[in-house]
Amino acid sequence: MIKKPSSSVAGRSTGFGYVISVLTLVVLLVLAAYHHLLPLPLGSELVRTGGSGGDDGSSHNITIVDFFKPFDPAHPTSVPLKDYYRRINLRPLSPYGVASVNFTEWIDEQFEISFEYLLNNVADSNFHNGGLLSQGVAEGVIIASPSKKSPDYFYQWVRDSAITIRSVISNMFILNSTQVYDDVYILNATLAATVLKYVNNSYVLQRLDNLSGDGVKLDQAGQLKGLGEPKWLVDNHPFMESWGRPQNDGPPLRSVAVLHFLDELRQQGLKFSDIIDQCNRSKLLKGRLPFKDERELFEKVIYWDLQFVLKNWQADSFDLWEEVNGKHFFTSIVQFAAIRMGLRFLQEHPDYTWDSFDKSALSNALQKCVEQMLQFLTLGAGFLNPNKNFIVETPSILNSRSGLDIAVIIGSLLTRNYEDNMPFGVNDSGVLNTLYHLVKSMGIIYPINHPKANLNIGVALGRYPEDVYDGVGTSEGNPWFLATCSASELLYQLILESYHAQTDLVIPLNKWESEFWTLIFDGFDDYNRQSYQLVIPWGTPAFTQTMISIFDLGESFLDVVREHVSEGGHMSEQFNKYTGYLQGAANLTWSYGALWKSCHARAQAQTLIGLQSEGDL
Ligand SMILES: *[C@@H]1O[C@H](CO)[C@@H](O)[C@H](O)[C@H]1NC(C)=O
Ligand SMILES: *[C@@H]1O[C@H](CO)[C@@H](O)[C@H](O)[C@H]1NC(C)=O
Ligand SMILES: *[C@@H]1O[C@H](CO)[C@@H](O)[C@H](O)[C@H]1NC(C)=O
Ligand SMILES: *[C@@H]1O[C@H](CO)[C@@H](O)[C@H](O)[C@H]1NC(C)=O
Ligand SMILES: *[C@@H]1O[C@H](CO)[C@@H](O)[C@H](O)[C@H]1NC(C)=O
Ligand SMILES: *[C@@H]1O[C@H](CO)[C@@H](O)[C@H](O)[C@H]1NC(C)=O
Ligand SMILES: *[C@@H]1O[C@H](CO)[C@@H](O)[C@H](O)[C@H]1NC(C)=O
Ligand SMILES: *[C@@H]1O[C@H](CO)[C@@H](O)[C@H](O)[C@H]1NC(C)=O
Ligand SMILES: CC(=O)N[C@H]1CO[C@H](CO)[C@@H](O)[C@@H]1O
Question: What does the UniProt keyword field contain (predicted)?
Fold first, then answer.
């Protein structure tokens, strides 16, 4: 464990900052009261339509086209009726967290540094990080952290590695900036080789006997239990001590990563076999690979992970935090994504012939699993609970816990893609309300958040409110870097999703379903009892204004991260809830991947909103 004071640049908890925040609070309270005293709309650009009178039970639209301009009668968006309702406004983000020029500079630097530090934990002879290879780490292995004691994280976890390689895959294509008219991407063959080595290593791990079972050999019950082994020694030997076994999110996360890699290649018009050849020609691969093309990759690696999910999705397993045996939203949603992507792969390659399995039998099994799992996810499992407006991560322990867990958000982020129409996407009300409740709960639980607790602003987030793991043993839980980064990524991805859909933003005006949106908008209270919905038409100024508000909220979470990284931009697993000092496993790979992914989504969101610089905010 290392302890490093928060960067002094932040200066966020100085007396002065505090006075400012209290003043802000007073101003906000006065503004809020002011709104309450004025039942009539402040600006007449709000109009209410009755639809067909509302008697058909359909929702009434509250359409807003511009939050800042007065109503222009020449361009009414809908018919005003005699009823007046309180106006809905964007909630101003507290100035306490307004992103400064310095923040932008920090982001640009940290974006690159995070990736560099991530690669420091990947054993790959092309990076000359001789360190790892000379410490006996096998080529293609991703270590969880270089920390060897208090805590010892010097292992490879199937889950952490699969999540980390996603960032490498997303960074594999860079825009050719000398091409002015088209977006042309250039393959970074070094990073492509890193992915190949990761998959090569996965092939090895899949075939190792271990305490969970015997690799890809079917056991007596035909269950493939061996793939549920959560962690391995860095030299690819099985870990022989007791542990939370099995963890059934590893194989699906791995196949989602590999299938995502193939999707990325296809989008760039590249074949998997071409990538192998290119890497080999560039002398980026030192050894042999067990597959020479996409078909063999599927048959030798992806197939087994899919089989594992098919056979084990109904079984209990330990959660991603390795603590609770049961059914977990995170585990189930990544399993569902793997099955769905696997099925799509088969459908997209009807021409492939398979040596080791019957194509239609596999397709049918995957199809049936998709249907059953969808039922399970939305009905059977209890992830959706009529008494909660957020998603319950582990329903079986709801008697002793709130059910809130950042895992829900991470699961939604990791399974997001535009091809598979996944449920529980980043605009899902249960996913968004999970963020809302985590913010409210952790704003209180972690003392470093107290100066911000009443402000409309991002706070430091941890795994789940009842957490007692302090990074080494159990005492008190702390905020985690990867949790706080995931909150910001969710908000940036929500922006990407909204632009991708190119449809009106439609938000039911009730606090139960749309509680998250009360972080973005003021004035939902007056609509609570009836079926109104806020409509922000695609392409209007209000749409952009809303996106900017979401973006700003995302920034305020990253700003928390900025306050707590070390001077050199290093992160550990946690930061102390009282002092903000780094705590737990140093240089945690997942922390860097989470921050990198968030910055990556941020850059895309920024382009879509058309923000050239912070000055435009
Ligand atoms: C309400 O808005 C939605 C989304 O734009 C639209 O599809 C629907 O037709 C509107 N309903 C009425 C009654 O105007
Ligand atoms: C912010 O950046 C400016 C210009 O780079 C610098 O002069 C200033 O000291 C920075 N402020 C803080 C608080 O770091
Ligand atoms: C980038 O685009 C320019 C202009 O078309 C081209 O000359 C150059 O070869 C491209 N770079 C790479 C690495 O493909
Ligand atoms: C490929 O990525 C590596 C690691 O980030 C980087 O060092 C290298 O410069 C990149 N290569 C190209 C051609 O951009
Ligand atoms: C693939 O893994 C095998 C077994 O560990 C190893 O011998 C080989 O060198 C690896 N291939 C590459 C390209 O790293
Ligand atoms: C790379 O090319 C060499 C020479 O053609 C060949 O022997 C080797 O098998 C290739 N390696 C891979 C991983 O394709
Ligand atoms: C989320 O977005 C998708 C498509 O982008 C859309 O079909 C779906 O209705 C949206 N869900 C919600 C709850 O808004
Ligand atoms: C974290 O990694 C950096 C190199 O990127 C190293 O200088 C530092 O000592 C590491 N921290 C710990 C505690 O291992
Ligand atoms: C290679 C190795 O150590 N295999 C072990 C895997 O776990 C089984 C138990 O299921 C042990 O018997 C093997 O020794």
Answer: Carbohydrate metabolism, Glycosidase, Hydrolase, Membrane, Polysaccharide degradation, Transmembrane, Transmembrane helix
